[in-house]
UniProtKB/TrEMBL annotation, chain A:
Keyword vocabulary terms for this entry: Flavoprotein, Oxidoreductase
GO cellular component: plasma membrane
Naturally occurring in which organism (per UniProt): Streptomyces klenkii
UniProt protein name: Acyl-CoA dehydrogenase
MF terms in GO: acyl-CoA dehydrogenase activity; flavin adenine dinucleotide binding
Cofactor: FAD
TrEMBL record, chain B:
Protein name in UniProt: Acyl-CoA dehydrogenase
Gene Ontology molecular function: acyl-CoA dehydrogenase activity
Origin superkingdom: Bacteria
Keyword Oxidoreductase: yes
Pfam families named among the record's database cross-references: Acyl-CoA_dh_1
Organism: Streptomyces klenkii
Length: 389, 355
């Protein structure tokens, strides 16, 4: 309509294809089976905390892990929007998806895009079969939001590289198979240019994994100590010195997906189950309605980014915007649920009760706006992005 | 807007200062109207335009604060007339959804039971009551009224000059007039019996029109704020370079995008009707109304003093936001309706529009 309209405000409106509707029905049927099996428990934050390799393999058996990877590498060759449908169904149901989460979201696409033919042939079929789980080794003690300051270094050896340093908050390193590690290959010059990515076997000699317990007591995070780990040449991911470019190029995928607003959705379902057993007051309904409208609106924005990604665009600003809106909503949902139906938050209550789920979501809540890029940093990206239009 | 480009010619718009003759320059075009910051005409969509296109045009009208019943005409009155089988007249139109009107048949059938007359010789009605805060009633060539006759829901058209009009306005100075009807005869030719779902659709269209206007005004707030914080310098640097400003401005941009997405998502369901439309429209109006306060707050805060004066056009957008969020149902009433429509097992199917 007007050329002066700031373009980051314009998101494509998405009508999901028929194939996606069919797929959604299939996923729901699968989830019903898994529910009967007792694996799908409607838990919040299941993409961080729900590690179940058996579930991941059965999901892979349906072609729903690495599903956007090409068929020649064992993937299902499905579109990004179809993947979106599967992911959102899994998260809404609180299914245990954390084992294959990083393989499916980052490692697979990253190996496909930057990896050598050898790496593709080795890793992608295993990822798609749910037999190869990845962690991410990016953050360090002194490198949080300022990722370009990483200190872990990779030194040249005869047959490859020797990695030294400590990665922090490495989710699942104690149970997964590989980690993609960002390390410095060049100490001189531009700090962005001296970084490279490596695929590190988490069972290789010199890898020491030290648990870092969350405040809930759960063991999800680790310090990943790399004490002179030898990595063969063939495990450099992408080109030497391109690490920064490769990492930042993936951010739109990582920031705008359903996991940025659905993390605590199962808690809202639990609340509605509770409210269904009594006559809800108008005030309770009002608050549920406000949350529902916001969930719906954020989902539509997130779908807009997915459609843009599917069309080959790189909507970084829009993705940052979805992440800030969505993750703030995840936290606000927990507080609102607490206010709608006062319930003691008790982590030791029977698992799956409203009281226990509330405690779980609450103890996890500070993380929602931190992981995947601190929201304060993202807001800077959003403001700058809009000014440039 | 910044201190170098103050629009000193931006006037306030008193409620009764609209040039109604300028509403239509040509049958399908709303002309540039005096006393507005809208520099160009916003074309009224053609009858064959898709709902998404009409919605986009209404949003643009909201963005430009078009001083005319654009949304009321394009997204509510015209489609309802078409649905009810009436010809669509030229000129600005408005609407009133008024189940509280007292309606009797002017010529009760001989077999009619009771004084109200549950059927008539024909559909000529006698209507009494007050249509409250009808948007732009004083400028409209016709008001489309949806009401309940003894026989069930009806739609009739009313020339506003047949009623006694008490002028009123909203915060933005847009006309919101009361129309007093005292046993006013509405000839059968102006009356159509309608199915109940058309009554629901009327409510949906009105709420979505208002939400789309809010989306446009929100965009205007964002545009003006981004321009202002980029141009305005304090302590030797543009406001937009201050972290505190960046954080707030990003929230403004986000909230604006959120409203836009909610509105856009209701276009397709509105055409297909029923449960999906009810959900998408309720969500859109809830979100648009709920976001209005934050959008207006941040836009004003980042504009500083000039934003609260008529030297800046910001007030044209923010006063509309504060008005429109309450009109056609505020966020609380729509939120309750939205919540009543879902349960633990139907919430996710509703969000994904897949039962």
């Amino acid at each position: 309509m007007s050329s002066s309209r700031p373009s980051p405000l314009v998101f494509p409106d998405v009508t999901l294809p028929e194939s996606a509707l069919l797929l959604r029905t299939e996923v729901r049927a699968f989830l019903d089976e898994e529910h009967a099996r007792g694996t799908v428990l409607g838990r919040p934050d299941s993409w961080l905390a729900g590690w179940d390799d058996g579930f991941s393999r059965r999901l892979a058996g349906r072609g729903w892990v690495g599903m956007a990877l090409p068929t020649e590498y064992g993937g299902a060759g499905r579109g990004f929007l179809e993947r979106y449908v599967v992911i959102e169904e899994l998260l809404a149901a609180g299914a245990p998806v954390s084992a294959h989460w990083v393989s499916d979201r980052q490692a697979g696409p990253s190996v496909l895009q930057h990896g050598s033919e050898e790496q593709r042939r080795f890793f992608l079929p295993r990822i798609a079969a749910g037999q190869c789980f990845f962690s991410i080794g990016m953050s360090e003690k002194s490198s949080g939001s300022d990722l370009a300051s990483v200190a872990a270094r990779a030194e040249r050896t005869a047959g490859g590289w020797r990695l030294t340093g400590t990665k922090m908050w490495t989710g699942g390193a104690h149970v997964n198979d590989y980690a993609i590690v960002l390390a410095r290959t060049d100490e001189t010059g531009d700090r962005h240019a001296g970084l490279s990515q490596f695929i590190v076997d988490l069972r290789a000699p010199g890898v020491r994994i030290e648990p870092i317990r969350l405040m809930s007591g759960e063991h999800r995070f680790n310090a990943l100590h790399l004490e002179g780990v030898d990595v063969p040449d063939g495990m450099l991911l992408g080109r030497q010195g391109d690490g920064w470019k490769q990492v930042t190029g993936e951010l739109a995928f990582e920031r705008s997906g359903p996991e940025r607003y659905l993390t605590t959705f199962p808690l809202l379902v639990s609340l509605l189950r509770e409210l269904g057993q009594r006559a809800a007051t108008a005030e309770q309904l009002r608050q549920v309605g406000i949350l529902t409208a916001r969930l719906h609106s954020v989902r539509r924005l997130s779908l807009g980014v997915a459609a843009a990604l599917d069309a080959g665009a790189s909507p970084d600003i829009q993705a940052a915007l979805v992440k800030d809106l969505g993750t703030r909503l995840e936290g606000a949902l927990v507080d609102t649920v607490r206010s709608i139906l006062p319930t003691p938050a008790d982590p030791h209550a029977t698992p799956g009760t409203h009281s226990e789920l509330l405690a779980f979501a609450l103890l996890h809540s500070p993380g929602y706006t931190l992981r995947g890029g601190t929201n304060e940093i993202l807001r800077g990206i959003i403001t700058r992005g809009l000014e440039q239009h | 807007m910044n201190t170098h480009t103050i629009h000193t010619d931006t006037p306030a718009i008193p409620a009764d200062d609209y040039d109604t003759t300028a509403f239509y320059a040509a049958p399908d075009t709303i002309a540039t109207v005096t006393h507005t910051t809208a520099p160009d005409a916003v074309p009224l969509p053609s009858p064959s335009a898709s709902t998404a296109d009409v919605l986009a045009a209404v949003r643009e009208a909201g963005r430009r604060a078009v001083p005319a019943p654009f949304a009321e005409t394009a997204l509510v009155a015209r489609p309802l007339l078409r649905r009810a089988g009436f010809p669509v007249p030229d000129g600005p139109l408005s609407y009133a959804i008024a189940p509280e009107l007292t309606i009797r048949y002017a010529h009760p059938a001989a077999s009619a039971v009771g004084s109200a007359g549950c059927s008539g010789e024909n559909d000529t009605l006698l209507v009494s009551g007050i249509l409250r805060r009808v948007p732009w009633a004083r400028t409209a060539t016709a008001v489309i009224v949806l009401a309940t006759a003894p026989s069930g829901p009806v739609l009739f058209t009313l020339a506003p000059d047949r009623a006694v009009l008490t002028p009123g306005g909203n915060l933005a100075g847009e006309p919101r007039d009361d129309l007093h009807l005292t046993a006013l005869e509405i000839p059968a030719s102006q009356v159509r019996r309608i199915p109940r779902h058309l009554l629901d659709e009327a409510g949906h269209r009105a709420a979505l029109a208002r939400a789309a206007l809010i989306a446009g005004a929100a965009e205007r707030c964002t545009e003006l704020t981004v321009a202002h914080t980029a141009a305005r310098t304090q302590f030797g640097r543009p406001l937009s370079r201050f972290q505190a400003v960046k954080q707030e401005q990003a929230r403004l941009i986000e909230e604006t995008a959120l409203v836009g997405a909610a509105v856009q998502a209701a276009a397709a369901p509105l055409d297909t009707g029923s449960p999906a439309a009810a959900f998408a429209v309720a969500a859109a109006k809830t979100q648009a109304s709920a976001s209005a306060a934050e959008i207006a707050r941040i836009a004003h805060q980042l504009h500083g003093a000039i934003g609260i004066t008529q030297l800046s056009p910001l007030h044209l957008a923010t006063t509309r936001l504060w008005s429109w969020r309450d009109e056609d149902g505020d966020e609380n009433s729509w939120a309750v309706r939205l919540a009543r429509s879902v349960t633990a097992t139907t919430l996710w199917p509703a969000l994904t529009a897949t039962p």
